[in-house]
Amino acid sequence: MFALGAVALGFPAAAVADPPPDYIDGYVHSTDEYPIPRKMLLTTCTAEQLLDAAKYETPMEFDRYMMEYKKHGEDLEDRTKERMHWFFSLPPGVQGPRRDFSEHMAATFGDPLDVLYTDYAKIFVNNKGVVAKMAENCAKYPRDDQSAWDWRDDSPVAYN
């Protein structure tokens, strides 16, 4: 007979991790860095400024995102743009509506856009290094440049 409990294996009871205090209710919760990093919660830039910053500051990440974005068709492209415009129109802050949406992203797996296009916001919530470069440089790009969403796989920007 095999006993697989922590005590039977010789591990002290303290080795079993308790759930974090904010998980007591059984739900996943956002933090200041997950799923939407703090710099995105605080930025005053628009989605277009951030995309332009990604295009020129992290071109490989921009290309990866845009390749995926363009695979999903015009309807999902439009829904993605609408969602990003809505999010960046919310007041910046680590508390308030942006943080509330981050909480929604962390805990909701049935959002229609998530189901149809899981990575729709990936470039905006990507690793902190990419987000940092975008947030640090976005202000130098035009606020309403809709061409930021345009991309061709032979883009001259890529890898320059």
From TrEMBL:
Source superkingdom: Bacteria
InterPro entries: DUF5078
Protein name in the entry: DUF5078 domain-containing protein
Organism per entry: Segniliparus rotundus (strain ATCC BAA-972 / CDC 1076 / CIP 108378 / DSM 44985 / JCM 13578)
High-level lineage: Bacteria, Bacillati, Actinomycetota, Actinomycetes, Mycobacteriales
